[in-house]
Structures are given as C-alpha cells and as structure tokens.
C-alpha cells in the first residue's frame, strides 16, 4: 500500500504544457501464459504488441503508508490517507524543516502470539530525498496556484 502525493490537475497540466517531461516505461505485457505463446490481440493493455506502456508523470511521488505517516507527522500535517493542502503552507513548513526528524530506525517486534513484525524504517537519506522532491512539488504547485493533493 502506498500514498501518491501530487499537484491537483497535474496530469491535465503536464499533458497540455510539458508532455516531454513524461517518462514512458515499457514492460512486457502479462497477457500471455507461456513464453512461446503469442500476445493476446484483444488485450486492452498491449493490443497484441506485448508492450505494456506505463507513463511516469513528473511532480508525483509514491511512498509507502508507513513512511508517509512518518514524513507527514514530521511536517506537522494531518495523517489522513487522502487530502489536500495549500502549497504556500507547505513551503512555510519546509523553510525550517529538518528531514532528520522523519527518519525512523528499523525495528523488529514480536507480538504476544509470536508473529514477527518487521518495520524497514525510514533512513535519513530517504527522508532527505522525500524532502527535496516534496519541495519541488510544492514550488511547482505554488507557481500553478493549485493545491497539493495526496491519496
Ligand atoms: Zn497484453
């Protein structure tokens, strides 16, 4: 499970104004069962070509639910699984933000019935990466006068 953080109307904006920033990654389509089988000509993803194209839009970040909680609470934002926030509020927060605050140690816990829970934690480096990327999103959202949204 993950959370996507982006700018309101981002896809529409990028398609209309800067389509060159979209990265297209091509995966082999999953519509055939065996390697020697032909691809399905009626497949909605590849239409028989075998190439499943995935568009990667700029100003979008995907982070795991647990890292999202850590990152969002370190920013002082409400941890909810979807919402919107004004980019100027975010820029104000980020001006004095210390990405080390979001870093969490890796932990392994055992529950009473013996089940093992492994939390991979959030490294200081990854937290720094989130911070830099989120700052880019916030700057761009403020420039476009759109809200930052997450879901
Ligand atoms: Zn296919």
Note down, in words, how this protein is organized:
This protein has 151 residues and is an alpha+beta fold. It folds into two domains: 2-18 and 59-150, no CATH class; 23-56, no CATH class. Helix content is 32%, strand content 25%. It has four helices and eight strands; from the N terminus they run βαβββαβαββαβ. The chain has helices at residues 10-17, 65-75, 87-95, 124-144; strands at residues 2-7, 23-28, 51-56, 60-64, 83-85, 107-110, 116-119, 148-150. It has a four-stranded antiparallel beta sheet with strand order 4-1-8-5. β6 and β7 form a beta hairpin. α3 (87-95) packs across α4 (124-144). The longest helix is centred in the C-terminal third of the chain and has 21 residues, at 124-144. The protein starts with a strand and ends with a strand. The protein binds zinc ion (ZN). The site of zinc ion (ZN) has 7 residues, from loops. Residues 29, 31, 39-40, 43, 45-46 line the site of zinc ion (ZN).
Whole-number mean pLDDT: 90
Shape, principal axes of CA atoms: flat
Question: Major sheet, described briefly?
Answer: 4 strands, antiparallel
**Annotation field: number of helices:** 4
The H-and-E topology, N to C, reads as: EHEEEHEHEEHE
Helicity, as a percent range:
25-40%
Which quaternary structure do these chains form? single chain
Domains counted in the coordinates: how many?
A: 2
Category from helices, strands and their pairing: alpha+beta
Low-confidence stretches: none
Care to count the β-strands? 8
Terminal CA distance reads 11 Å
């Amino acid at each position: 499970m993950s959370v996507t953080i982006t700018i309101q109307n981002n896809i529409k904006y990028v398609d209309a104004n800067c389509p060159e920033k979209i990265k297209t990654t091509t995966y082999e389509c999953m519509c055939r069962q065996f390697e020697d089988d032909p691809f399905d000509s009626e497949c909605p993803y590849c239409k028989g070509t075998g190439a499943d194209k995935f568009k990667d839009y700029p100003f979008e970040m995907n982070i795991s639910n647990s890292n999202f909680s850590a990152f969002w609470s370190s920013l002082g934002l409400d941890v909810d699984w979807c919402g919107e926030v004004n980019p100027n509020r975010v820029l104000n927060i980020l001006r004095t933000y210390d990405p080390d605050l979001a870093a969490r140690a890796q932990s392994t816990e055992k529950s009473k019935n013996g089940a093992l829970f492994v939390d991979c934690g959030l490294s200081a480096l990854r937290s720094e990466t989130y911070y830099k990327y989120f700052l880019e999103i916030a700057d761009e959202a403020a420039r476009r006068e759109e809200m930052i949204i997450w879901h």
